[in-house]
């Protein structure tokens, strides 16, 4: 089985403690934008976890310790979601995948500032498909060389990409004027617009989301194409999502985690209602 290891570094003009609220608020918004017409996101579990709890069910335990930057984490919020994805995968996979098989399971342990997400397809690809996303949120400009403590071959295999939310190109189908950091100025914080080429080296406050992606995929004849697609899609998602996070600053700024949990609960009810109705929405696959 081939393995791809790629690290994306997303620099953002906000504090690490602000991003926890910003990210969760934006996930709730994006979930609604990508649900409808029989597709979208179903939230099965959204509850606190404590790895030291002897009664924690086995299926809610990660396969290895949660750690980065020399620290270990044991408490946070656990989520289990199902993504119903028929139109969100490339046509060469849709052509061979049986109907109903394109359900992706996502389990996440958000032990902020560290978070781990595991993406699988247990109904069809089983052990032949696995994505692990580990994120460490840190107050700097993306200069930490090995914040995920990679060793040996894994470190040698790793590629690194810095994502510039303002200056990296955006496809016309993903571009939305209201989510353009070059144009957005926050009324509450005075941050933005990010209209200078060197904003990453000058902006305050600043932080970086270090996202380490490990992709394992084994599907005869398609491995290279699928790995390439996943890598391209992760870059696209991280870029467009974080443009949105910044341009929603005036929506989330000042919210508490209690506010976020209330929004998540309301969003879960809305997703259950709109998933089966209306038209397909959100990002489609780029073949």
UniProtKB/TrEMBL annotation:
SUPFAM superfamilies: Bet v1-like
Entry GO terms, CC: cytoplasm
Entries under Pfam families matching the protein: IP_trans
Annotated Phosphatidylinositol transfer protein N-terminal domain residues: 4-268
GO molecular function: phosphatidylcholine binding; phosphatidylcholine transporter activity; phosphatidylinositol binding; phosphatidylinositol transfer activity
Database matches in PANTHER family: PHOSPHATIDYLINOSITOL TRANSFER PROTEIN, VIBRATOR, ISOFORM B
This protein's name: Phosphatidylinositol transfer protein N-terminal domain-containing protein
Species of the source: Dreissena polymorpha (Zebra mussel)
